[in-house]
């Protein structure tokens, strides 16, 4: 069978689809869709799409992806805002082949995971999110038992890709909520048949994306997903018109384990951000502004950049630490940094300008600081 209804997805449909299928069968609110297992028949795809409402999100669902051993976070392809059968077939082909891309192969090698020449693909209704984000049912930086949430306006791509500094919410036993408001400078939406990134109004940048009630709703949904899967999970979610949807669930990877962070950072901070991957390391500053700068990065360098998308993650196998000006601790780049065991500081505003003249620095991924090397 080439196509499988998402609600019936099993392990042969890939870990992402299997996880969503388990959620659907448990009664969770998941957008409907189907899984493409082989080279698709256009008529079958057209018929399956006709039963749903577009636009669509087309995403990889590799057998080695989204597992407890390796997340492949951001390494395989996702195509958002797909309209019509022709676009869907092109997006399916892109996602099916993404398991053998150079970045996916490099990640698989570092994680000792298999390379997949063709991966299953999910075609799913795109939720027109007013706000969206990620929730972890365990703090991935400390291993503490808490629900960590990051959120921003519009589609969740802004959060997972690290394009914005999101709001952060931490919920501990007893219902207490710790909130940190991020800058949320831009948002991505599907409007008038296309994806559009626009500036967020100043008033919306200053106010939290989630109310306390909504944060608790997201946390409760994440904990129910954890109960279904029997392990701590990483959940992507979206809210549209007041309705909460679950878009993805996978085991949390790269957790350091229950630990206490060091009492204090080393020296006075030149740059302050959010500790996204724990640990402390010194290295030579290497400011990289675009893909053309990749060749300058040497083993042991501290990679400093505005943001990282999946194309940047091969550098994580070379760099001693990563510092970004945008992003959150639950973004794809932060997940990969934790998996590879390198310290990361994200959301460090002005890091490139402040560190450009520095030679050696100390990156503290627990406290989110970058200081002069002693």
Descriptive report:
This protein has helices at residues 15-26, 42-50, 84-97, 102-111, 157-160, 202-206, 212-229, 332-340, 351-355; strands at 3-5, 33-36, 56-60, 78-82, 121-125, 131-136, 147-153, 167-171, 177-180, 186-191, 194-199, 233-240, 243-251, 269-272, 274-277, 280-287, 302-305, 321-324, 344-346, 360-364, 369-372. The strands form four sheets. Strands 14-21-20-16-17-18-19-15 form an eight-stranded mixed sheet. Strands 9-8-7-6-12-13 form a six-stranded antiparallel sheet. The protein has a five-stranded antiparallel sheet with strand order 1-2-5-3-4, covered by helices on one side. Strand 12 and strand 13 (243-251) form a beta hairpin. The chain is α+β, with helices and mostly antiparallel strands and 374 residues long. The model has no long low-confidence stretch (mean pLDDT 93).
The end-to-end span amounts to: 62 Å
Shape annotation: globular
Major sheet: arrangement of strands: 14-21-20-16-17-18-19-15
Beta-strand percent range: 25-35%
What percentage of residues falls in helices of 4 or more residues?
10-25%
SS field, number of helical segments: 9
Which tags fit this structure?
9 helices, eight-stranded mixed beta sheet, 374 residues, six-stranded antiparallel beta sheet, single chain, alpha+beta, 23% helix
């Amino acid at each position: 069978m080439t196509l499988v209804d998402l609600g019936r997805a099993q392990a042969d449909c890939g870990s992402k689809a299997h996880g969503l299928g388990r959620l659907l069968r448990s009664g969770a609110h998941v957008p409907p869709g189907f899984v493409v297992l082989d080279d698709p028949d256009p008529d079958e795809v057209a018929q399956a799409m006709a039963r749903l409402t577009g636009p669509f999100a087309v995403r990889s669902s590799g057998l080695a992806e989204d597992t407890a051993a390796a997340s492949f976070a951001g390494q395989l392809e996702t195509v958002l805002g797909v309209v019509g059968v022709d676009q869907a077939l092109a997006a399916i082909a892109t996602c099916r082949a993404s398991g053998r891309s150079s970045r996916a192969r490099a990640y698989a090698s570092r994680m000792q995971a298999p390379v997949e020449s063709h991966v299953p693909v999910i075609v799913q209704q795109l939720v027109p999110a007013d706000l969206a984000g990620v929730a972890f049912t365990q703090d991935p930086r400390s291993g503490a038992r808490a629900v960590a949430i990051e959120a921003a306006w519009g589609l969740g791509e802004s959060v997972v890709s690290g394009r914005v500094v999101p709001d952060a919410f931490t919920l501990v036993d007893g219902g207490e909520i710790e909130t940190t408001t991020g800058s949320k400078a831009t948002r991505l939406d599907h409007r008038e048949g296309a994806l559009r990134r626009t500036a967020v109004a100043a008033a919306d940048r200053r106010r939290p994306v989630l109310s306390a009630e909504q944060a608790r709703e997201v946390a409760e949904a994440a904990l129910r997903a954890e109960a279904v899967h029997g392990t701590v999970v990483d959940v992507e979610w979206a809210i549209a018109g007041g309705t909460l949807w679950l878009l993805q669930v996978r085991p949390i990877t790269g957790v350091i384990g229950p630990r206490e962070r060091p009492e204090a950072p080393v020296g006075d901070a030149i740059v302050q951000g959010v500790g996204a991957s724990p640990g402390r390391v010194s290295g030579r500053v290497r400011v990289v502004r675009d893909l053309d700068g990749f060749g300058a990065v040497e083993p042991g360098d501290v990679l400093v950049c505005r943001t990282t998308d999946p194309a940047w993650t091969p550098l994580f196998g070379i760099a001693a630490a990563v510092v970004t000006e945008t992003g959150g601790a639950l973004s794809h780049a932060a997940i990969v940094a934790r998996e590879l065991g390198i310290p990361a500081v994200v959301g460090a505003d002005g890091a490139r300008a402040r560190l450009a003249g520095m030679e050696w620095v100390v990156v503290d991924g627990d406290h989110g600081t970058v200081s002069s090397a002693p």
